[in-house]
Amino acid sequence: MAPILPITDLSDPRLDVFARLTEAQLRNRLEPAKGVFIAESPKVISLALDAGYQPLSLLMEEKQMEGPARGLLARCPQVPVYTADRETLAALTGYALTRGVLCAMRRPPLPSVEAVCAGARRLAVLEGIVDTTNVGAIFRSAAALHVDGVLLSPTCCDPFNRRAVRVSMGTVFQIPWTYLGRDAADWPRAGLDRLHALGFHTVAMALSDQARSIDDPALLAWEKLAIVLGTEGDGLAPATIARCDDTACIPMSHGVDSLNVAAASAVAFWQLRPR
């Protein structure tokens, strides 16, 4: 049985991981082997466990112990479980817990770009997307709509951010991903050159007079496609569009100029899926 530890002191340093560490501190960039991320809700935590991620500690509402989180306790018999009522946990974390459970988990080493691309026919490539909700939604669409892996420019937000993990519904644990370089200078030239060297035809999703309609059959003729999506608001940088092999757009109606990047990704992934 997991050790159950009622919370009596909100300043307990053992609770720092849930309440007081920044995202950068959780990532622990100086010592990646010690990095941590937070998974939220029994379903998402269960998917992480299914994928082999290592739980470090749990934070949960007392009532969850005999409810939806009961199965987590059985799966994590040696993991400390910190408990309190809903109001106390909200005071500790600063937000209401989704489904009343958080789990601190060990951050795994990221695979190489080549490992993510091995055997892939469709990739999603994200440039500078910083909204955690959008990143989580894109991962969910990618996993559902036949994308084999996700690559991120160095300026994208962390897919292991708590909110991104939650919005993805745990698909960040199911689809391989990594960064295309570590520094801003690694994108777009070096990153796109790597994709081209690996045999991918790169398609920039962008509003342009030269853009093909996304349903152009010529796009489906390519065995390996990398679908490149840009940041919220400004979209892809001109230098990125210029270095991609193709540009495509989703035809709009009623005078709407574009879709939110997460919505656009779902349309693109479905239309450009392997046939």
Q: If you had to describe this structure to a student in words, what would you say it looks like?
A:
By secondary structure, this protein is an alpha/beta fold. Helices cover 31% and strands 19% of the residues. It is built from twelve helices and twelve strands. It has helices at 16-19, 23-27, 42-50, 70-75, 86-93, 113-117, 132-144, 162-167, 189-197, 217-220, 238-243, 261-271; strands at residues 4-6, 36-40, 55-61, 81-84, 101-106, 122-126, 149-152, 177-179, 201-205, 212-213, 225-229, 246-249. It has a seven-stranded parallel β-sheet. Helix 7 runs parallel beside helix 12. The chain is elongated. The protein starts with a strand and ends with a helix. 40% of the residues are buried. The mean pLDDT is 93.
- Overall geometric form: elongated
What's the rounded overall pLDDT mean?
A: 93
Count up the helices: 12
Helix content: 25-40%
Proportion of residues in extended strands: 15-25%
Task: Briefly summarize what is shown.
With 275 residues, the protein is of the alpha/beta class. It is built from 12 helices and 12 strands. A 7-stranded parallel β-sheet has the order 8-7-6-11-9-12-10. Strands 1-4-3-5-2 form a 5-stranded mixed β-sheet.
